[in-house]
Amino acid sequence: xxxxxxxxxxxxxxxxxxxxxxxxxxxxLVDELVIGVAVNANKTPVFSLEERVEMVSVEMSxxxxxxxVSIIVKPFDTLLMRFAEEVKADIIIRGLRAVSDFEYxxxxxxxxxxxxxxxxxxxxxAGARYQAIASRLVKEVARLGGNISSFVPENVVGKLLEKFxxx
Length: 167
Known about the structure:
This protein has helices at 17-26, 49-67, 80-86, 99-115, 135-143, 154-163, and strands spanning 5-10, 32-38, 70-76, 91-96, 120-125. It has 6 helices and 5 strands, in the order E-H-E-H-E-H-E-H-E-H-H. By secondary structure, the chain is an alpha/beta fold. The chain has one domain: 3-Layer(aba) Sandwich (Rossmann fold). Helices cover 43% and strands 19% of the residues.
């Protein structure tokens, strides 16, 4: 039997509880999950690539131990399908929060299938309590001094407070 490898790509700037919810759902489907931390030239991240990889890695170690599923955190700065081929992924995991996410994701599935139709894309809905959480909104709340503890892991709260110290 071959192992089923999934890849969950994102910028994770920062990692949110919504991302973790999708990861916990994804590990029920695969034998190995690669969390691909992306460099995205179209975005200006608050955290460096190294910081994002570290934050994700810290949170994934406990999930991997508890679940028994291999979780690997890797940065990438190439085309997603090229990265998926490199890590021998069978499926790409994408999280959906709302209907508004679907149009963009639908276009991406078509493009990815044109590049490699052997790798499937699977959509997972975020749990109801996580559907409003978006990294860009979390950063805005943090920047304005709001409480972000119900949106991100404790480790990430500290990192965001370092980036956005309150007056």
